[in-house]
Design brief:
With 238 residues, the protein is an alpha+beta fold. It has helices at residues 12-23, 60-67, 71-80, 86-106, 140-153, 170-192, 203-213; strands at residues 4-9, 30-36, 52-58, 112-118, 121-127, 163-167, 196-197, 219-224, 231-236. The longest helix has 23 residues, at 170-192.
């Protein structure tokens, strides 16, 4: 089994996920190095698709423990995971078709889209020239479109289907912006001792902030308010 791989994807997360599958490890078990980010051509140029290359190397301590893992332990882990039934799989296939039908009618001919399934989750990527109108101010339009597509996918299903929508690589860029903001706010709170309340965000964006700061020793985060004005508060731990 290899200890290091170079993986490619349309986004950084996509490349990382592919590398993790090849190595058969989780994200916390590897060191990640971005070798090649999106080239300098426009994200909106569908003739020059975005490609990101990352190198994933299994951490030294993981190499040692992985050698002594038994097949019994691996099977035990698999059994604990919730796997969809055949009926769920059929529903996912129907959900993909429903999303494709919607996008084919909703988008213009110049805009291209791809809908695919990974680990029982649906991913919809939209690419094309001048698709910024589908993103909107601070992602308001893409978030609304995400909600709409999720509703379409989850109509008449027995178990919730997760749907992730991205437009011209916006999600990756937004995640990076939010993570940088989270780190900056955390430093401010530690320095001043005063809590900071961020502007209203979607549940998806709040999750990014929470996840980025959850390992902080001195910082805690919590949400307050009602949708769509729910906000994150970053404060010192008691």
């Amino acid at each position: 089994m290899p200890n290091s791989v170079i993986s490619e994807g349309k986004t950084t997360n996509d490349a990382i996920e592919k590398g993790l599958k090849e190595l058969k490890v989780s994200k916390d078990m590897v060191e990640i190095k971005v070798i090649e980010e999106a080239d300098k051509r426009s994200f909106y140029n569908i003739l020059a698709p975005r490609v990101v290359k990352v190198e994933l190397t299994v951490k030294e301590n993981v190499k040692k423990t992985r050698k002594v893992e038994t097949k019994k332990e691996e099977n035990s882990t698999i059994n604990k995971e919730k796997r969809p039934t055949n009926q769920n799989q059929e529903e996912i296939t129907q959900a993909v078709k429903a999303i494709e039908d919607f996008l084919s009618k909703f988008l213009t001919a110049e805009v291209k889209y791809e809908v695919y399934v990974e680990d029982y989750e649906i991913y919809a990527n939209i690419q094309g020239e001048n698709v910024h109108y589908l993103i909107g101010y601070r992602g308001e339009t893409i978030n609304a479109l995400q909600t709409l597509v999720s509703s379409i996918a989850n109509k008449n299903v027995t178990a919730k289907i997760r749907v992730y929508l991205d437009i011209a690589g916006y999600r990756d860029k937004r995640i990076k912006t939010l993570e940088d903001l989270a780190e900056k706010i955390a430093k401010t709170v530690i320095r001043t001792g005063k809590s900071v309340t961020l502007e209203p965000m979607s549940a998806y964006e709040r999750k990014v902030i929470h996840s980025k700061l959850q390992s902080q020793d001195k910082i805690k985060t919590f949400s307050k308010g009602e949708e769509p004005y729910r906000k994150i508060v970053v404060a010192l731990k008691d």
